[in-house]
Amino acid sequence: MARRRRIPFARSRNSLIFLFLSLFILLLLLTSGDYFADKQSDKLIATLDSAQIRKEGLKLYNANCLSCHGVGGRSTSFGPALVNQIYYKGNLSDRAFSQAVIYGAPQRNWDYGPMDPVDGLTQTEIAQILAYIRAEQERAQKR
């Protein structure tokens, strides 16, 4: 008959305390995974209704996008109209829009040259600008 071999670690009282303490800390970290998340942006979104989000988006659009894309996204000599059919939600996803803002975009459907990245905007601010632009696109479609 084979003799069982005991693991010396399990005999020690300190090792059991260490094991339970480690498991407790691991469980605590798993249950509070959002502890390190950005609480400010969550509070901002939670306190704004859609009209306020679009209003903030308009302010951010005017500060960051107006010089190239024009009033209401209707173009200038420096950038294309964002209310054009090719930029509507069915043709350009929100993710693609955000990536164009963050990383820039190569010249594809226009003669303005490539779009440079827009620095200094948070994901929340990009989402607010996008909400404003999508509202302008809907308004243009109804005309």
Summarize the structure.
By secondary structure, the chain is mainly α. It has helices at 8-11, 13-31, 39-47, 50-64, 66-69, 94-103, 123-142.
Report on this model:
This protein is an all-alpha fold and 143 residues long. The protein contains 7 helices and no strands. Helix 4 crosses helix 7 and helix 6 packs across helix 7 (123-142). The radius of gyration is 26 Å and the shape is elongated. The model has no long low-confidence stretch (mean pLDDT 81).
Radius of gyration: 26 Å
Query: What structural class should be given to the helix and strand makeup?
Result: mainly alpha
User: What would the average pLDDT be, to the nearest integer?
Assistant: 81
Shape: elongated
Straight-line distance between termini: 89 Å
Helix content: 55-70%
Series of H and E elements: HHHHHHH
In DSSP terms (H or I, runs of 4 or more residues), the helix count works out at 7
Model regions low in confidence, pLDDT < 50 over at least 5 residues? none
Strand content: under 5%
Report the major sheet: none
Q: Could you give the count of β-strands?
A: 0
Task: Break the fold down into its secondary structure elements and pairings.
Blueprint: H1 8-11, H2 13-31, H3 39-47, H4 50-64, H5 66-69, H6 94-103, H7 123-142
Helix pairs in contact: 4-7, 6-7
Which keywords apply here?
57% helix, 143 residues
